[in-house]
Amino acid sequence: MTADRPTFSLITEPWIPCLMADGSERELSLTGVFREADGVRDILGEVPTQTFAIVRLLLAILRRAFVDRFRDPDDFEGWAELWSQGIPAEPVLDYLDGFADRFDLLHPVTPFFQVADLRTAKNEVKDITPLLFDVPSNSRLFTGRAGSALERLPFAEAARWLVHAQAYDPSGIKSGMVGDARATSGRGYPIGTGWAGAIGGILVEGESLDRTLLLNLPPDPGDRANIDLPPWEREPDTAAARPNEMPTGPVDLLTWQSRRIRLVSDDDSVVGCVLGNGDRIAPQNQWTSEFHSAWRYSKPQTDKLKAGPVYMPRAHQLGRAFWRGISGLIVRSSSAGSAGEPAAAFPPQVLTWHADLMLNGILPKGTRIAPRAFGVEYGSNQSVVTEILDDRVSAPLAALIEAGGELSGAVERSVEAADRAVRELMGLAGNLALASGGSSEGPRSRAAEDGYAALDRPFRVWLSGLKPDADAEAQLDEWKAQVRVIVHALADERVRAASAAAWQGRDVQIGGRTVTMKTNIAEQWFRAGLRRSLVRSTAHGEAAGEGTA
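Request: output the structure for the sequence above.
Response:
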């Protein structure tokens, strides 16, 4: 705090919660984070998505501090030097020092990530809850916060929620701001969620923050460094939206100002906020700037825009384990689709960069990487938060790169094998329900939940333990053997629990024909289906269709 006004510098004040290598937890400033990056294991937060938002801020700072370092896609030696020696802190701190005023959370003219004179026509100020993701739908009845925790925020926590709000704030009607031409009758109508909430966020984690940052800094080739600026290097934002819905590059997108915000504080806490719409963003084909999301081809968008193939960010499927969609992370040898059609999807650019590093001998095939998924499910026209996804897998680099050998193909087929086996378990559960005179829908759904839950940890252990130099088919067969044992055990439980009516059976319509379904028939069908689903490779001693059930 200065003699005449309060200050809170993100550069010097601790505000980033960190898990250190020794297992302790500390809050560090930006200076502390960059000085001690090799001793930080992870960035923490009130909610997991704070980690993604804060790491993206750190990545933007690094791209600007080393503006010429991460541009040449062929500078493998330069990247390898940083990988072996670590990111030097002094150039980063010198860079930050040049924008010290812009990193002051409470600056009267240029407060960090805010608009100093932001106001509504009636000068309304809301409490702190619009900033908080851990107050469901801003409902005080359904949160662990109570008392002063719902009334004021320490400056450090307010800084975290501010960064998070710019990344993940829900859509919906906001307060209309003076100076925003889009405001109508005091309202700001929906422009969408924060950018990070619109993508399927992926960070590749290393064993330290230093490694994590480097693993997430693919080069940005081209000549846009002079225009690809973060908010602290531009003229301060006003209530009005910037005219362009297209980001100028990865730095602009990492720090995209989805909202206009002003924090209201007393001498030691944030006690309220003014929050309105910021910059809208067009999600089409942002893969040239957004390196931390997978992408999917959209025919409707392509037909609508008539400007070549259009790709949209590929959101995570919440409620579904991350590993079940791992095929979307695999870097293919060719990006083209079949018969000249556009590729249906492609992985995050950050993983494509890892493929280049491996193929050029910078990272060995056996390098362990840990893609971590961050996602948010919004409800009620994206105006409320219903669920947050935080999931990770660990695998050798070659397992996610097609050109690295046969291992990535085995990984894809391992998930397919699990899916087929679970479908057979669902079929058994459904048939047992039909045999007893009940509905099959509920039992099938519960069987799917039980099947994937039982396979979850074994799959993660198997994936992490893959060996790039070992026989990929043999390792796949090991997984199939585990699936067979696990799913069979679940099936046996259901058969033992079958009712007397199910053993007696009844006539049901299946596939257009009448079948007398009973427990023993359902079990026979399951066993045959599981054998077909988990056929081992003929190269390993079993003929197609054979195997123990």
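Residues 288-404 form one domain.
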